[in-house]
TrEMBL record:
This is Probable membrane transporter protein. It is a multi-pass membrane protein. It comes from the Bacteria. GO terms for cellular component: plasma membrane. It holds the Pfam family TauE. Keywords: Cell membrane, Membrane, Transmembrane, Transmembrane helix, Transport. The chain crosses the membrane at residues 27-50, 95-116, 160-191, 211-241, 253-271. The keyword Transmembrane helix applies. PANTHER family: MEMBRANE TRANSPORTER PROTEIN YFCA-RELATED, TRANSMEMBRANE PROTEIN YFCA. It is found in: Cell membrane. Belongs to the 4-toluene sulfonate uptake permease (TSUP) (TC 2.A.102) family.
Amino acid sequence: MLSGWSATGQTAQQHVFAGRTGVGIEWLVLGGAAFFAGFVDAMVGGGGLIQVPALFSVMPGSVPATLLGTNKLASIWGTMVAAQNYLRTVRIRPALLLSGALAAFVCSFFGAWLVTIVPPTYLRKALPFILGAVAVYTFVKKDLGVTDKPRFAGRQEIWLAAAVAAVIGFYDGFFGPGTGSFFVFCFVRFFGYDFLRASAVSKVLNVATNASALLLFGVSGHVIWALGALMAVCQVGGSLLGSRLAIRHGSGFVRKIFLLVVVCLIIKTSYDAFFR
């Protein structure tokens, strides 16, 4: 989300570093948050639930767009490592990943541009209810995502994956919270994937949406590159651990983590929408 941009990237950077010298305890705290975010995000998404609030809490006087850009820099590296880890084990058609990634990239960029014009006020209030429906459905359907039974094949699967990626990619650029979890849910519910395969696809598509947003933030000067690099290293460590844990324990384990993360997202988004 790009609301709160300053007039220039240089101004944003100066605002961030005002009164700060070197790498202090704040950066160490953010590194820890990035590790935990990478760990959770590698399994079911939702890492932004940890990393973004940490950035805003530790650096409350900073330009929001700069913190969001820094978040994307850290996230994309963790997501890429998790995707690579999954793809070594889970077989997914390259054409599906390519079409989905392209659609996600383009639509995420458009969503990020649109939010500079139209604030996502109504979506913010609707999100807790959407996530609530996802949580209830997943909880009630005990066998959802436990076994891998793809419903589509060939070009139909490719085009449908691109359509899902376009919609969620646009959402990620326009608003963002829970993007990875929405990807996972859609590929489990509508495509018949198990949670492990859905998580693998989610990571690849999330790389595309993160790259799109990072491009927009980067060219506008809204990235703290040194801090983002530190957090990226920590994200990679968490992503390696999280993805390996998911692969080792399988879809049943990932399903439980998914429900836990969605419940946390409901609490966080409800607070943001109605009590902040």
